[in-house]
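Field log, afternoon session.

UNIT: design team B
ACTIVITY: writing a sequence onto a fixed backbone
BACKBONE:
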């Protein structure tokens, strides 16, 4: 029924759906949540990245939804699959010496924009507020308070 529908990509790889159906050898009758999870575990064991696993899971979900709509599957086993989240790393930050070096650079001129940039950098470093919190500050807000607490953290 599906023979020849998916051609290898230019790099010689086949689509996730083709590799899934080749693994099953049972046709659509063997396509259930347990088989899908086993297939994904094999993909993970093969060393595929989390992003690739997430894409393949999305592909299989789309395929099983299509097969269910066409009446080839009595239910949609892809609905019960979890999704591998792509790894997200924290952004790099300056160490104390690097931050001090940035703050020690004198403004290029006495233009208000240069002085404002220097003040923003010092305020960010000294208070630890987020950029969004700094942007939300209004100069006209409650000038009588000597110290300010961030209301967002």
């Amino acid at each position: 029924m599906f023979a020849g529908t998916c051609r290898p990509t230019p790099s010689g790889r086949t689509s996730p759906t083709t590799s899934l159906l080749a693994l099953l050898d049972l046709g659509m009758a063997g396509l259930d949540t347990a088989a899908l999870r086993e297939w994904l575990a094999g993909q993970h064991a093969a060393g595929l990245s989390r992003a690739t696993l997430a894409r393949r899971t999305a592909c299989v979900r789309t395929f099983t939804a299509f097969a269910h709509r066409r009446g080839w599957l009595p239910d949609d086993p892809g609905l019960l699959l979890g999704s591998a989240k792509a790894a997200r790393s924290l952004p790099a930050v300056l160490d104390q010496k690097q931050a001090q070096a940035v703050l020690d650079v004198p403004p290029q001129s006495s233009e208000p924009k240069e002085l404002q940039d220097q003040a923003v950098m010092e305020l960010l470093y000294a208070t630890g507020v987020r950029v969004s919190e700094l942007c939300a500050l209004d100069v006209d807000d409650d000038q009588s308070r000597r110290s300010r607490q961030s209301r967002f953290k």
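LOG NOTE: The chain has two domains: 16-80, 90-153.
NEXT ACTIVITY: expression trials, pending approval
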